[in-house]
Predict the 3D structure of the following.
Amino acid sequence: MELVVAIGIGVLTGSGVWLLLRPRTFQVIMGLSLLSYAVNLFIFSTGGLRTGAAPVLEPGGVGDLATHADPLPQALVLTAIVISFATTALFLVVLLAARGLTGTDHVDGREHDR
Amino acid sequence: MSDSLLLLSLVALPFLGALAASLLATHARNAAAYLAGGVALVGLALVWTAYPTISSGGVLRAEFAWVPQLGLNFVLRMDGLAWLFAGMVTGIGALVVVYARYYMSSDDPVPRFFAFLLAFMGAMCGLVLSGNLIQLAFFWELTSLFSFLLIGYWHHTQAARDGARIALTVTATGGFCLFAGLLLIGHIVGSHDLDVVLASGDAIREHPLYLPALVLVLLGALTKSAQFPFHFWLPHAMAAPTPVSAYLHSATLVKVGLFLMVRLWPVMAGTDAWFWIVGTAGLITLLVGAYIAIFQHDLKGLLAYSTISHLGLITLLLGLNSQLGLVAAIFHILNHATFKASLFMAAGIIDHESGTRDIRRLSGLNRTMPFTGRLALVAAAAMAGVPLLNGFISKEMFFEEALSAGGLLVLPLAAMLASAFSVTYSLRFIHGTFFGPDPEGLPRTPHEPPAWMRFPVEILVLGCIFVGVLPAATVGPFLDLAARSVLGEATPNYSLAVWHGVNLPLVMSMIALGGGVLLYMALQKHLRSGIEGPPLIRRLEGRRIFERALVFLSWRLARRMEGLLGTRRLQQQLRLVLVLALAAGGFAAWHRGVGPGNLVPQGVDPVIALVWLVGAACALGAAWQAKFHRFAAVMLLGGAGLVVCITFVWFSAPDLALTQLLVEVVTTVLLVLGLRWLPKRQDRPGATGVEVVTVSRRLRDLAIAITAGLGMAALAFAVMTRTPPDLLAQHFLARAYTEGGGTNVVNVILVDFRAFDTLGEIFVLGAVALTVFALLRRFRPASDSLEVPEQQRDQSAWDEARPDRREGDTVADWLLVPSVLTRLLFPVICILAVHLLLRGHDQPGGGFAAGLVASIAIILQYMIGGAAWTEERLRVLPLRWMGAGLLLAGGVGLASLFFGMPFLTTYFAYAELPWIGRVPMASALIFDIGVFALVVGATVLMLIALAHQSVRGHRAERRAETAPRALVPGED
């Protein structure tokens, strides 16, 4: 289980990093999204992989780590998901505006002749 | 008067006077002069009041708490040396004020001048009275600063600005070194108190840090006292008004470096390092300064270089490591201040009354200004070391020291040569200005100055004569006080007398006098030719080297470094960041060791393995296709997101899964809306061969990506196979219900325990939405994205070709079933949103999820019905939603303050509602409603703003078609 998720995180990271280094803005935004999946999963995984232990208590009950998963990484990742959505939206609009202003979708705002 | 009051007022009065002067009217010349003169005289009187204590060998001391935590006190301390300097600063200060009153034009903002002058006087008093090294460095910097302001007083001239800048750069750099050096001394001694420092001479000299401390302190002292090779700032400082030159750049400021060397002489001197550094600097400065002074055509330039030379003489005396040398140095500091200040004032009078300072144009002024001429003659003779004047006596002492300094023949010869030079330039000053034929073509007709302008010169010249004739009776006791305060028991016997019989120094004096006169006569032809600059070393100009160094440091070096290390290419920057991050991670792993943890991995479930097979394929596919097939890449990205979502569900994180799913939907819509405005990119295989450079770059990036992926996988595996540390989990799990009133622990953390974070987060989200909105308001699509997409063109052509159809009918027909369903689903989705919101505290859901669901409901209507249709029926005001959300969330937080609780404290209870039953009512729910409202507003604002671009794009397109001329640049 752990190995599968770890490999998954690795593949997401590798794809994200590859796209991050590409010259077109759209590729970079894709890369950032993939990278944010990887990072969110990694933060989430620091609480351990547990099945059937959602951190939802019985009414009136007191929770315990033996029966419930660690809620803190989940709370952190929930925030991170929303923030990465905001980042993606902002970056998308910036890249559209840059494309309109510069006429190119190269990350440097101009084409290089190499 | 108590000691502390006396010392404090001596330092504080000038500053208060400066403040008062700066408040005077711009042209209140007389008021400012009276104020400044009064302050200087009071200061002098205060110094005199201290004389009885000082003369009986006492030390005045006052201590005030400054930074007691660091054991640092503000200490004022007056011994003989400080007393002498304080007297010089206030006494010559008073004379300079009188002189400046007549020198300064009433057109200048004179109160500002006196304000700077007084502030400088205060800084000088603070410096010489400092009983603490840190405090000394502070006042040292203050003197540099006020010197800068005074040199730049006539800031409308380029020369003044340049001179001020050069002086500040050199002396402030030196001051910085000095500060470092003083800190080192403080470190060696263990205290910054001057008394403690002066008592630990052996500890300092034997410490391994002695040499660095010495070099740093001397860098400060030698720059300030304009010693070679830092001497070049002083001639440029002559752009200051002449009273400033007389006061700062001959009598006081430039003596500060010497003062410091005298002050620290008992603890720093006596070593070979001191002898070689101080002595060499002094010797070179003495000779070079005197040599250059001969060939100056500007009166003030001549005096500036002669000042440099005399400062070199004093430095050399200090560098000889002999007690008698120290006494001679202090004596010459006094004598030089007297005759050089009066010479500067005389030069100022000549400039003021004749309009020029150029020796080549001046001549025969003795007939028009006889009195000034005689005063200048006496002062210049003192400078040249003519017998019966003060300069002669200290020069004799210098010769004696040079002769007795360890059998070096270099020293006496150099001393004699420099002395001859000084005779030559003194002769040039007097002979060139006051003798010879009547001057022609001067800007003004020369005449005697007002009596009061000459008065300070008269006093100083009288001083030269009295000290010269009766040294022991006049200056003797004061010199003794100063020398004794430095040397203590080690003060040598010396005799201040005009006549010591015929001895070697006297012979040297006579040779120098005769040689100087002969040299002047021999140089007549050369000097008359009017060539600028001294022969032989004309090209060795300190200023040019300084400017070159500055240009190199601040411009060329910076540019070269930028060219070498900087890039404007984002890809290279990102590559660098990634490689550095990898290196940092690798270093940490190598340093601390990494490997799988102690937990036994759980067995692999084939379902999750299969899911991740799909997920990995999606991620790789998105990476592969993002360049040429953007739509496919967006779909594949969504696939990867869904796999992440499934992983969250699988591993007990229902809240995350819900949020991930909804965010995935909204992000996909957003990206698809954006695709429209990106340039078309066609993949034509084989159209152009891929270049070698590109291939190698791709291989490199691939290597980075694979390394990063492997590293993250290894790291994640290592983390997951270790028992997670129980930092806060237990805390939150135990208190979520009992203190937060909710069973969904993740939601309780978000809206209760860590509500402040969430509040910050929704502010970020709101700010992002507003930024997106603002950016899109000014959005200008690229010209090749303006035209209507192919599919829409086909549909419109079909509609227009038929008279019974209107534009847009085809789209509506094709999406008939989805649109009916979507409209039916709208209320259902809205109810789902409310459901998620209300149950969020106890079950998976919450404000974020509910807000996203609601905005999906709205954006679905836009997608199906189009912007116009939807907005006719459903008016969403996103800004109001956002505002209400922020107010609600912030308001709930503030409300807790009214109950005397900290910000964002929550309260919960159960309410019995008819028919519905027991309902949990937590104030956190209201907070969550705020989050919900903001998320709805922000998401809808962004999506609608982007969706509206298509409408605007169409309009622009249509306008361009119908009236091509109407589309002028800048028109909206």
